[in-house]
Amino acid sequence: MTKRLETLESILERLRLSIKKNGLKNSKQREEIISVLYKNGTHLSPEEITAQIKTTDKNTSISSVYRILSFLEKEKFITTLEADKNGRRYEIAAKEHHDHIICLNCGNIIEFVDSDIERLQISIAEKFGAQLISHDMRLFVICSKCQKNNASIN
Question: What does pTM read for this prediction?
Answer without folding.
Answer: 0.76
